[in-house]
Automatic annotation (TrEMBL):
<protein>
    <submittedName>
        <fullName>YibE/F family protein</fullName>
    </submittedName>
</protein>
<feature type="transmembrane region" description="Helical">
    <location>
        <begin position="124"/>
        <end position="140"/>
    </location>
</feature>
<feature type="transmembrane region" description="Helical">
    <location>
        <begin position="199"/>
        <end position="219"/>
    </location>
</feature>
<feature type="transmembrane region" description="Helical">
    <location>
        <begin position="306"/>
        <end position="329"/>
    </location>
</feature>
<feature type="transmembrane region" description="Helical">
    <location>
        <begin position="147"/>
        <end position="167"/>
    </location>
</feature>
<dbReference type="Pfam" id="PF07907">
    <property type="entry name" value="YibE_F"/>
</dbReference>
<feature type="transmembrane region" description="Helical">
    <location>
        <begin position="10"/>
        <end position="28"/>
    </location>
</feature>
<feature type="transmembrane region" description="Helical">
    <location>
        <begin position="341"/>
        <end position="366"/>
    </location>
</feature>
<dbReference type="InterPro" id="IPR012507">
    <property type="entry name" value="YibE_F"/>
</dbReference>
<keyword id="KW-0472">Membrane</keyword>
<feature type="transmembrane region" description="Helical">
    <location>
        <begin position="173"/>
        <end position="192"/>
    </location>
</feature>
<keyword id="KW-1133">Transmembrane helix</keyword>
<keyword id="KW-0812">Transmembrane</keyword>
<feature type="transmembrane region" description="Helical">
    <location>
        <begin position="248"/>
        <end position="273"/>
    </location>
</feature>
Length: 372
């Protein structure tokens, strides 16, 4: 029986993933995201072999021999120059022998110029990724493997489908809604299987994230939020015309709250299933009450999780505001601050609303199945 259910689950997942892959192959290739500015750029990893340093009036100058370690120039040794100031920490790189760096190459008039771009940090990120995968596999075993698979799927849909379509002018609201619903279905079916628990969680999660997104969009219009409160958004606006930045606010809320709301909805649906399984004579209304009680217990911690996630990302900015002793009236009315506050509030509202929706849906579907 279990093998049959698992087989059906993976057939469903494979079919849905195939459709997504076909969409990404036949819709995305026609999108040219390369600008004239970046068309001539090429990046390489390299390692510092030798280093000479001397002091100047502005700081320090370094002459380094580096070996390119990947790409068509792998094995080539080139000389680069780097300047830094000892007391500056912002955009300040100090080279050391053995340090791995990223180089950028520009080709102009048949000549190639190579400069230092940044320190290579991808190995550290890869190490963290490997540790995460090992922890998931050791603790979760098969479920851990399924979790890794869902993380890969989520990243693929966002990076390969959602973001490119938004960049070329598709509605952020429509694209993000479609992407989020697809992610929700795939995650919950892979983790929970093809059953009433997953269906109830899908309905609850989908309702919660969409309500959160539209609430943020609606209140954002009332509050006259531009969606251009960050430096990144302003840079994007200078290079792209016609992009719906208020729609991006909606998109950000949906993606940011997706994980927490999915967790809450699946916990409630699974709890309702277990309660009914332990007491098959439990009536519909009683099952709803038990599910709501479970949801209330989860609500406090998960609501804090969402709010703290937004606060954590804004700590340097908040410290800057306190350091400059800005007035509360000015702070609360800044576009960026108002956007972050609205994002946290709307996401939390969506999470709370998903609780009764999931509880009712789970109770209804589980009673329809008539668990004995």
């Amino acid at each position: 029986m279990n093998l049959d259910i698992d087989f059906k689950k993976w057939i469903f997942v494979i079919v849905l993933l195939s459709l997504i892959f076909i969409i990404s192959i036949f819709m995305i290739p026609d999108i040219n995201l390369t600008s004239d500015q970046t068309a001539n750029e090429e990046y390489f990893r390299a390692r510092v072999l030798e280093l000479e340093e001397y002091q100047t009036e502005q700081g320090y100058n370094q002459q380094a021999l580096v070996e390119i370690t990947d790409g068509p120039l792998a094995g080539d040794i080139v000389e680069i120059e780097n300047e830094y100031q000892a007391n500056h920490r912002f955009l300040n790189i100090r080279l050391e022998e053995g340090l791995r760096v990223v180089l950028v190459s520009f080709e102009q008039n048949g000549e190639r110029d190579i400069y230092l771009q940044d320190i290579a940090r991808d190995r550290g990120l890869l190490l963290a990724l490997v540790i995460l995968a090992l922890v998931l596999l050791v603790v979760g075993k098969v479920k851990g493997l399924e979790t890794i698979f869902t993380l890969f799927i989520t990243a693929f849909i966002i990076v390969r489908v959602m973001l490119p379509l938004v960049l070329v002018g598709w509605s952020p609201i429509l694209v993000t809604t479609f992407s989020a619903l697809t992610i929700i279905v795939l995650i919950l079916v892979i983790i929970g299987g093809l059953n009433v628990k997953s269906l109830a969680a899908i309905i609850g999660t989908g309702s919660g994230v969409i309500i959160a997104g539209f609430l943020a969009y609606y209140i954002g219009n009332i509050a006259h939020l531009s969606g251009l409160g960050t430096q990144e958004a302003q840079m994007l606006a200078s290079g792209l015309e016609g992009l719906d930045f208020r729609g991006l606010l909606y998109a950000g809320i949906i993606i940011a709250s997706l994980g927490a709301i999915t967790d809450v909805a699946m916990s409630i649906a699974s709890g309702a299933y277990q309660i009914k399984n332990a007491n098959p004579k439990l009536k519909f209304k009683e099952l709803i009450n038990h599910s709501l009680e479970l949801g209330r217990d989860i609500m406090g911690t998960m609501a804090n999780t969402l709010i703290l996630a937004y606060v954590g990302g804004a700590i340097p900015f908040l410290l800057l505001l306190l350091f400059n002793q800005m007035s509360w009236l000015r702070i609360i009315n800044m576009d960026f601050v108002a956007t972050e506050i609205l994002s946290g509030l709307a996401g939390t509202i969506g999470l709370v609303i998903s609780i009764p929706i999931t509880a009712f849906t789970a109770a209804f579907l589980i009673n329809k199945v008539n668990i004995k």
